[in-house]
Give the backbone structure.
Amino acid sequence: MGRCLPSHEEHCEESFKKYGKTFSDLHRWMDEPSTLLGKGHRRYRHDPIQTPLLAKKLFGELADQACLDHIRLDELESRRNQQPLELTDQTKWFVNFLFPPFEEIISRPKTSYDVKNIKFSRMLVYYNATDSFNARKNIVDKLTEWAIEKYGKKNVNARIALDGNLQSFIKWSLDKKPIQIGFADQFALFLKSKDGRSIERDLTREYLSLSNLWSEKTGRKSGLIIIFLASHSLRLPSEFMYDWTAILFRNSPTTRQDHYEMRDLIGEEAITYLKEIEQLRKKNTDFVRKSLFWTKDKIGILETPPAKRNYWKEAFDFIEIMDNLDRSK
């Protein structure tokens, strides 16, 4: 039986390793409601957008980052109470999980005119140098094709940023269609290439509030946003490691840190399975189609055959942007 909560000491130890100070007062403040609510205290002072801003005002520089680390550690602890491992083909379940019925997506809540029904699905595709670009792209190609087959092409906006530039999708590519799908490849390399923290912080804030940004831009009160981030590393900023809808593992871990992260999510047995899959791919190309997925409800095998066609548009298209501006005049 796993523990319900990470201890105060664990939060302080992680902060000290990363920032050289424990932020003990911050972590005590965040967990203060737990004396009355237990695990339910995470409904309070654990919001990934508002709480870090308040934490920085109350506890100083880097407190916002330590706050996000606290939220993420709590999330990891919750994941340890995972459903039993199923190393079987769960493709049908996963597709239905990722793409709910269209009626649910476009339905508007009846409680208030200001309430939104926008689902934001965050997806990570983990790979390493042994996996080709075409192999990991085919996963999102096929998932997008399944989405279009289910919802219709007129209802799906699919945008790709091959350089990992998620900001291109957020700033330029959102439209009024009810389903928005974005794919940022080599995302860890894109973050590493950015100079200065200000750009990264702007991006993470926009990413976490993407549902609201989309609603403000288009006027939509309902819909589905799916973001695929392909990364060769699990060492992403805390904001991007928060509350994944699913993680697709193409390969076994390549670093000690990735191993620890992956072990907490899927366990040693699944890591061994991934290593076996990597070996089998060298002898049988059919195994290129297999990935292991994690969600909060299930772990299983996803099999994605080749997509029939490519539905992607570039996330940033200067000509398209100019055409849209001309039409808006």
User: Anything to note?
Assistant: The longest helix spans residues 256-281. The chain has a mean pLDDT of 83. The longest strand covers residues 117-126. The beta strands are 117-126, 156-161, 179-184, 222-231, 246-249, 290-294, 299-303, 313-314.
